[in-house]
Amino acid sequence: MNHHRSLLGGIEAGGTKFVCSIGHPPDEIHATERFPTTTPEETVRRAIRFFQSQPQLPERIGIATFGPADLNLNSDTYGFITSTPKPGWSHTDLAGCIQRELHVSIAFDTDVNGAAMGEYLWGAGCGLKNLLYLTVGTGFGGGALVNGRPIHGLVHPEMGHLLLPRAEGDTYEGHCPFHRTCLEGMATGPAIQDRWGVAAEELPEDHLGWIFEVHYLSHAVVNLMLTLSPERIIMGGGVMQQKHLFPAIQSKVLSLLNGYVQSPKILEEIDQYIVPPQLGNDAGVLGAMALTMIQ
């Protein structure tokens, strides 16, 4: 990972907005531009123009994208956004378009794997090799690092589509078009909006919706803890801006585990085990830059 003086580029390719940056992360960022995600042609062209307008092209560009995405280096569609529900973006050759125009090395991964890498290098995951980054917002995503590298596999993990027990008294039919009542269908921002008729930030802290939210997020966290055994779980995204969720989730996770995982990090330091991210609004684009350090 001895790339810290290289001039690096990052693209946080989000379903709502793109963020492009260039510099020496994490502290020396020369330029950043944010713009809405419109059509693939317009949005990718704008990202390319951002780098072309800089005094010098970066040596490498990391792309941390919404998905699903093809991360298989041996695939004919490596670097593509694949079967996404975002209109117009299915089968978009995101990495290939940028590489062909700029002629620089590209690192390509999911937005959550990028965020996990950023927190691992410069944020809440510093000093750890195995961690989990979860984002709860417009969708639900999870990125896992094992020995400092993101898990891929057959495609890439889709932690947002875990199937979980329904909360007692919850009759909501679910928001996911594929699975209805999976984690993403029950606990994301759009699910909250659809279920209660108001955005998450407008729900009072004592609203029933937060009891349901803690139920689903805590069950997901426990399942992922028992599957991956991360050294820390970092939870970000718009919904997790409600800081009262953290102690509630920490307490519920302890209750669900019921003493089974005998680690002081769980039993005595749960408030340091399930934590918010440290990189804030820059996590996505810094994470994209971080990807260039392992690919």
Q: Could you explain the architecture of this structure?
A:
- It is globular and about 55 Å long.
- It has helices at about 40-50, 95-100, 110-120, 185, 190-195, 210-230, 245-255, 265, 270-275, 285-290; strands at about 10-15, 15-25, 30-35, 60-65, 80, 90-95, 105-110, 130-135, 140-145, 150, 230-235, 275.
- About 35% of the residues lie in helices and about 20% in strands.
- The mean pLDDT is about 95.
- The protein is α/β, with parallel strands linked by helices.
- A hairpin with a 2-residue loop joins strand 9 and strand 10.
Using brief descriptors, characterize the structure shown.
single chain, 295 residues, alpha/beta, five-stranded mixed sheet, 10 helices, 21% strand
Query: Going across the major beta sheet, what is the strand order?
Result: 3-2-1-4-7
Q: Strand-and-helix sequence, N→C?
A: EEEHEEEHEHEEEHHHEHHHEH
User: What profile does the largest beta sheet have?
Assistant: 5 strands, mixed
Please identify the structural class as seen in this structure: alpha/beta
- Percent range for helical residues? 25-40%
Q: Approximately how much beta-strand content do the residues carry?
A: 15-25%
Q: Tell me the number of strands.
A: 12
Distance N to C terminus: 10 Å
Count of helices? 10
Low-pLDDT sequence parts = none
Shape: globular
Report the radius of gyration as a whole number of Å: 19 Å
On the 0 to 100 scale, the average pLDDT is: 94
In short:
Helices cover 33% and strands 21% of the residues. It is of the alpha/beta class.
SSE layout:
Elements (H helix, E strand, L loop, with lengths): L7 E6 L3 E8 L3 E9 L3 H13 L7 E6 L14 E2 L10 E2 H9 L2 E6 H12 L8 E6 L3 E7 L2 E2 L32 H5 L1 H8 L11 H21 L3 E5 L8 H13 L6 H4 L2 H4 E2 L7 H9 L4
Parallel strand pairs: 1-4, 4-7, 8-11, 11-12
Antiparallel strand pairs: 1-2, 2-3, 5-6, 8-9, 9-10
Helix pairs in contact: 1-2, 3-10, 6-7
